């Protein structure tokens, strides 16, 4: 993960909305900071968010650049990244 | 240090030793093995070396000991490949072939030996509402903090068990979170007895005091645990009990976890014996399978200092013309007994076995309720009838919980041990293919 002093920002698109987030964070941290609670919906439709933070539990899965089921906690945000969550049921 | 692989080609690495995991144990093993001239490859799921314990705040600093070892790793000649999850491993004619998903591409590693440094994960015990967004692991919270998440202004409760609660509560308070409560399930006398036993390790006492000083305005309650989480769409509050009194507390985030569980899936796939959930190893860190060694938390929970020592021992064990110094072995013995005292102090109370109600979801991947698995005779039966443990996490979250709740034995393990792209699973590589990554040196005389 790129190290930064906290100043640099990136443009990403989350659920069709353009957002500015801190560079050098994971996708999970970026979404958490945007106030997003429901990263995915469970098989019965429950909202779910990050739990283990280290790629074990698979609860923070989102779609990144059209690739579904990506673990948000394992991937660093990059400029221009498109992320889709399950915030809308 | 190597960047994650990219592209669609199958990469091949031919090595003498493959180390799985780049936490303290894996780093120490890789450094000692590579220093002896062996071709060492390290496969790591994370984005940087250090594992969970040495993960650092974006833009922040890391402990001196971590800097020291990571610098040694960089110099050692070991090839470290991040963003890489091991999916399968086959052995034939004394050689192993590892299949990994490396940032979406297939990676095959042919190696004479394997050092498992797969670490541990948190034990989460299901209770009503634990699937709400905002309920996360204690280690998970630390990981999120260190990867750039801001908890400033959030009302946070840390409740569970074990020494990990103190540094995480301290980090949260330092980052501006409003810590509501820190609740340890172990009774006060156990925690006090453990703290009193720390006279052998003055540095740990000082460290604990520094952590506690960071959240002095929040109560640290022993013999206290969470029985339910409430909220619509996200966490809004919890029910807390100390066995005599039960009360409600509002919270935006609940950090929970009941200690650590060794990651033994890959070891069990290789056929290594496990005992009480940890990989069985001998004095040289050798498992019951030839040319497979194991180090760190995967061999039993003991902390980073013990992991480093075990890593060094394993790295020296596989190195030609090396021997393991007695001082290192004595250090391991001392650290192991400290770890045992810690595990005894934070033993889990019986009441936690009755936390889930019939409707509590136990398997978060497949939304399987406690009621539907509680009559199963074993883990296998629960899987077959309810799909518990059959989702993407492959039972890594629910099975340790169900083993705790019902005293079940773990079910057999089959590849792929992690979800992987079909393109990765079906990738093929010729026997005489040219390696994609070359080592400067080639000794190749380990395991003679």
Detailed description of the structure:
The complex is a heterodimer of chains A (89) and B (448). Chain A is mainly beta. Chain A has one domain (9-84): Ubiquitin-like (UB roll), CATH 3.10.20. Helix content of chain A is 8%, strand content 31%. Chain A has one helix at residues 27-33; strands spanning 9-14, 17-22, 40-41, 47-48, 61-64, 67-71, 82-84. In chain A, the strands form two sheets. Chain A has a five-stranded mixed beta sheet, covered by helices on one side. A two-stranded antiparallel ribbon of chain A has the order 3-4. The longest helix of chain A has 7 residues, at 27-33. Chain B folds into three domains: 11-121 and 261-343, 3-Layer(bba) Sandwich (FAD/NAD(P)-binding domain); 124-258, 3-Layer(bba) Sandwich (FAD/NAD(P)-binding domain); 355-409, no CATH class. In chain B, the strands form six sheets. In chain B, strands 1, 2, 3, 4, 5, 6 and 19 form a seven-stranded mixed beta sheet that branches. Helix content of chain B is 29%, strand content 24%. In chain B, a hairpin with a 6-residue loop joins strand 12 (225-230) and strand 13 (237-241). Chain B starts with 10 loop residues before the first strand and ends in a 23-residue tail after the last helix. Chain B contains 13 helices and 21 strands. Chain B is α/β, with parallel strands linked by helices and 448 residues long. At the A-B interface, helix 1 and strand 4 of A face strand 8 and helix 3 of B.
Q: How do the strands line up in the largest sheet of chain A?
A: 2-1-7-5-6
Give the total of beta strands of chain B. 21
Apparent shape of chain B: globular
CATH homologous superfamily caption of the largest domain in chain B: FAD/NAD(P)-binding domain
Q: What structural category arises from helix and sheet content of chain A? A: mainly beta
- What is the count of distinct domains of chain A? 1
Q: Which key features would you list for this structure?
A:
heterodimer; A: 89 residues; mainly beta; Ubiquitin-like (UB roll); five-stranded mixed sheet; two-stranded antiparallel ribbon; 7 strands; globular; disordered N terminus; B: 448 residues; alpha/beta; FAD/NAD(P)-binding domain; 3 domains; seven-stranded mixed sheet; five-stranded parallel sheet; 13 helices
């Amino acid at each position: 993960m790129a190290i930064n002093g906290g100043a640099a920002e990136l443009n990403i698109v989350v659920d069709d909305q353009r957002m500015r987030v801190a560079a050098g964070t994971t996708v999970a941290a970026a979404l958490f900071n945007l106030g997003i609670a429901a990263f995915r919906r469970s098989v019965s439709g429950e909202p779910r968010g990050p739990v283990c933070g280290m790629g074990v539990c698979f609860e923070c899965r989102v779609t990144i650049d059209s690739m579904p089921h990506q673990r948000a906690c394992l991937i660093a945000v990059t400029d221009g990244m498109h992320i889709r969550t399950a915030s809308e049921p | 240090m190597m960047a994650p692989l990219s592209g669609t080609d199958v990469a091949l690495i031919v090595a003498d030793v493959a180390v799985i995991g780049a936490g303290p144990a894996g780093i120490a093993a890789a450094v000692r093995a590579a220093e002896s001239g062996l071709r060492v490859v390290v496969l790591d799921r994370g984005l940087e070396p250090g594992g969970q314990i040495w993960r650092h705040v974006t833009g922040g600093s890391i402990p001196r000991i971590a800097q020291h070892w990571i610098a040694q790793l960089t110099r050692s000649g070991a090839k470290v490949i991040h963003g890489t999850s091991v999916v399968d491993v086959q052995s034939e004619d004394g050689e192993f072939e590892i299949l990994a998903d490396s940032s979406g591409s297939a990676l095959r590693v042919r190696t004479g030996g394997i050092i498992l440094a797969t670490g541990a994960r948190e034990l989460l015990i299901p209770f009503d509402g634990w699937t709400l967004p905002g309920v996360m692991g204690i280690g998970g919270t630390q990981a999120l903090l260190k990867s750039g998440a801001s908890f400033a202004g959030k009302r946070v409760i840390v409740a569970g068990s074990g020494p990990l609660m103190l540094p995480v509560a301290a980090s949260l308070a330092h980052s501006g979170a409003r810590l509501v409560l820190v609740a340890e399930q172990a009774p006060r006398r156990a925690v006090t007895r453990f703290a009193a036993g720390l006279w052998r390790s003055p540095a740990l006492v000082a460290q604990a005091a520094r952590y506690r000083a960071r959240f002095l305005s929040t109560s640290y309650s022993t013999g206290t645990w969470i029985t339910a989480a409430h909220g619509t769409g996200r966490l809004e509050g919890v029910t807390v009990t100390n066995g005599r009194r039960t009360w409600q507390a509002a919270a935006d985030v609940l950090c929970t976890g009941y200690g650590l569980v060794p990651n033994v899936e890959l070891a069990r796939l290789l056929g290594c014996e496990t005992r009480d959930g940890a990989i069985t190893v001998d004095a040289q860190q050798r498992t019951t399978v030839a040319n497979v060694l194991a180090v760190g938390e995967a061999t039993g929970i003991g902390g980073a200092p013990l992991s480093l020592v075990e890593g060094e021992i394993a790295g020296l064990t596989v190195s030609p013309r090396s021997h393991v110094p007695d001082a290192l072995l004595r250090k391991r013995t001392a650290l192991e007994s400290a770890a045992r005292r810690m595990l005894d102090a934070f033993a889990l109370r019986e009441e936690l076995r009755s936390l889930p109600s019939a409707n509590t979801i136990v398997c978060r991947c497949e939304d399987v309720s406690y009621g539907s698995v509680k009559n199963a005779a074993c883990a296998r039966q629960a899987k077959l009838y309810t799909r518990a443990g059959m989702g993407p996490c492959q039972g890594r979250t629910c099975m340790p919980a169900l083993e705790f709740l019902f005293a079940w034995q773990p079910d057999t393990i089959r590849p792929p041990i992690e979800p992987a792209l079909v393109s990765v699973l079906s990738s093929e590589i010729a026997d005489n293919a040219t390696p994609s990554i070359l080592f400067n040196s080639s000794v190749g005389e380990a395991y003679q």
